[in-house]
């Protein structure tokens, strides 16, 4: 009898222990789930990293330095009124556009300071001087593996001396160059630069601007040179996936581009506007700024913030560094 009673007691204990284990497991699962959901929300839908999970439970090392390095960075270089964007991926570089002629010295100095020793890709969105002005000086200072050109057959051939001298320099240096086609994919490290649009048949050189999407890891960067509303509408009508984390304001924030529909589709977290301080075009225009503000994205401007660097840190969080404080 005594042994039977003990047996029943130990069975009851086993059952109680089992229930306690199940309850603990459920509590741990619920805690993990709530950590996962709340971090994912903070990340804007991105998966939490192990560091973030440990941090949520107060288990991360408080003495550890915040991670600051990143393998992919988008540099919106302050070239005054113009565009020049450096994409950096694990020590490899692509440059999209190269500002006006008077930006040459500061652009070359910036590229050198950013550690550029050669460019894997050099992209000309379209042949206006505020995008190609310093491209020849870039070729003179850095070896370039490949040049990506817009479809120059879609518009009258530009006759500016900046353009003709640049094309001569490309030929003389025998740099492989390719006319971009929709769907072309160029590799930069573990990322890809995809051509989404090559514009339309036009008299307006802005509208042969190349629209590209750079994608690496958790980062998507959309850029469209000076492409205007007609090109944006065509691209959206094609059903192309334009969603991106980082959006370069088209045409320096002009009201002739940057439609509400495009911003809705891109749905960026970060908008970078490349324009000169007190520029004569009034860029960025009020209508575009209203669209950008309504999108809910963080807005940065080279005329106010200087050079803007956007990247994803090792914890998977989007970060932006600017070279000078926003003007009062
Ligand atoms: Zn421009």
List the helices and strands and how they pair.
Elements: H1 2-42, H2 50-56, E1 72-76, E2 85-89, E3 92-96, H3 104-113, E4 121-123, H4 129-132, H5 135-141, E5 147-149, H6 161-172, E6 177-179, E7 185-188, E8 191-197, E9 211-216, E10 219-223, H7 229-237, E11 246-248, H8 260-266, E12 270-273, H9 286-295, E13 298-301, H10 302-305, E14 308-312, E15 318-322
Parallel strand pairs: 3-4, 4-5, 5-6, 10-11, 11-12, 12-13
Antiparallel strand pairs: 1-2, 1-14, 2-3, 7-8, 8-9, 9-10, 14-15
Bound molecules: zinc ion.
What does this 3D model show about the protein?
- The protein is α/β, with parallel strands linked by helices and 328 residues long.
- It has two domains: 2-56; 72-322, Metallo-beta-lactamase, Chain A, CATH 3.60.15.10.
- Helix content is 34%, strand content 20%.
- It contains ten helices and 15 strands.
- The chain has helices spanning 2-42, 50-56, 104-113, 129-132, 135-141, 161-172, 229-237, 260-266, 286-295, 302-305, and strands at 72-76, 85-89, 92-96, 121-123, 147-149, 177-179, 185-188, 191-197, 211-216, 219-223, 246-248, 270-273, 298-301, 308-312, 318-322.
- Helix 3 (104-113) crosses helix 5.
- Residues 60-68 have low confidence and may be disordered.
- The structure holds zinc ion.
- Zinc ion binds next to helix 4.
């Amino acid at each position: 009898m005594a042994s039977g009673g003990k047996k029943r007691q130990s069975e009851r204990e086993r059952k109680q222990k089992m229930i306690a284990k199940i309850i603990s497991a459920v509590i741990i699962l619920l805690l993990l789930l709530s950590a996962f959901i709340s971090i994912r929300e903070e990340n804007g839908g991105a998966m939490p990293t192990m560091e973030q999970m440990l941090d949520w439970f107060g288990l991360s090392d408080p003495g550890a330095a915040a991670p600051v390095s990143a393998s992919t960075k988008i540099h919106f270089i302050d070239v005054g009124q113009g565009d020049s964007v450096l994409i950096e991926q694990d020590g490899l570089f692509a440059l999209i556009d190269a500002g006006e002629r008077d930006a040459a010295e500061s652009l070359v100095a910036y590229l050198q300071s950013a550690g550029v020793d050669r460019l894997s890709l050099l992209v000309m969105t379209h042949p206006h001087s505020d995008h190609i002005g310093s491209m020849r000086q870039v070729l003179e200072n850095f070896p370039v593996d490949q040049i990506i050109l817009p479809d120059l057959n879609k518009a009258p051939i530009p006759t500016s001396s900046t353009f003709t001298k640049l094309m001569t320099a490309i030929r003389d240096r025998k740099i492989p160059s390719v006319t971009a086609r929709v769907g072309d994919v160029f590799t930069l490290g573990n990322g890809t630069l995809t051509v989404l649009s090559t514009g339309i048949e036009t008299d307006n050189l802005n509208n042969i601007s190349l629209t590209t999407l750079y994608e690496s890891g958790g980062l998507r960067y959309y850029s469209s040179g000076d492409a205007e509303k007609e090109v944006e509408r065509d691209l959206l009508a094609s059903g192309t996936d334009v969603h991106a984390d980082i959006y370069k304001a088209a045409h320096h924030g002009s009201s002739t581009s940057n439609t509400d529909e495009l911003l809705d589709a891109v749905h960026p977290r970060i908008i970078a506007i490349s324009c000169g301080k007190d520029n004569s075009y009034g860029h960025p225009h009020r209508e575009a700024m209203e669209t950008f503000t309504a999108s809910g994205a963080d807005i940065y401007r080279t005329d106010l913030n200087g050079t803007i660097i956007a990247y994803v840190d090792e914890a998977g969080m989007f970060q932006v560094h600017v070279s000078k404080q926003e003007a009062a």
